[in-house]
Amino acid sequence: MPLKxxxxxxxxxxxxxxxxGAMAQSAPLTSENYMQDGANKGVVLLSVRWDxxxxxxxxxxxxxxxxxxxxxxxxxxxDDEGADLLLNDAPLLLxxxxxxxxxxxxxxxxxxxxxxHIKVARSVTDIGIAKAGREVLLKEGSxxxxxxxxxxGEVVYIGHFYIDCAEEPGLWRYYLKDRESFNxxxxxxxKKVPELDTSKASFRLFKSSFFGKDFELN
Length: 218
What we know:
By secondary structure, the chain is of the alpha+beta class. Helices cover 17% and strands 36% of the residues.
C-alpha cells in the first residue's frame, strides 16, 4: 500500500476533537523494576518529539498525540483502546521543540505498530485528530507498517519519532547518526536508572518501509 494511500485512509477515519487516555501494560523503567525483572524482560529506549510542526502538508500545524505498539501477533481486539507499549502524554497546549526520552520495561518479543493519532489543524478553530488503529496498521493480522524486537535481558534503542510532512502529516522514525551520539544518549539513560546495563545496549531501529529508512550504526 503506498504511503499516501495509507494516510488518506487514516485521515478519513476521524476529524473531530477526542480525548485520549489509556493504560499501557509496559512499565516505565525504574531502578526497582529493573532490578526485579530486568533479566526476564526487555528494556526499550526511544524518544518522541511532541511539539507542533508548522506548515505541514497543507495544514497550519500537525502534532503527534499517541503512538502504540502491540506484542505481535496481537491478542488485543480491534477496538481495544490500550496497547502493550503506549505513549500518549503529549502536552495539550504548551509544547517544547525537543525530543523527550522514554525507557520501558516490556515483555520480550516482537512488537508491531498498532495505534497512531495525529492532531491536525487548518486554523485555531478547525482542528481534528487523524487516527489509525489495528484495523489499518495490523490489517489482516499483518505487521506491515513496522516492528521492533527485544529479548529478555536486552536493552534496545528503537529510534526517535516525530511528525513527517512529505505527503500528508504522518509519523517518521529518525535516529542517532553516530556512535558518539548513541553513547551520550545511553549515558543520559543511565543517569536516570544507574543500575541499567548500557554496555550491552543494541542500536536496533523500529523497522518500517512506511515510517523510516534502514540504518545500522558502525
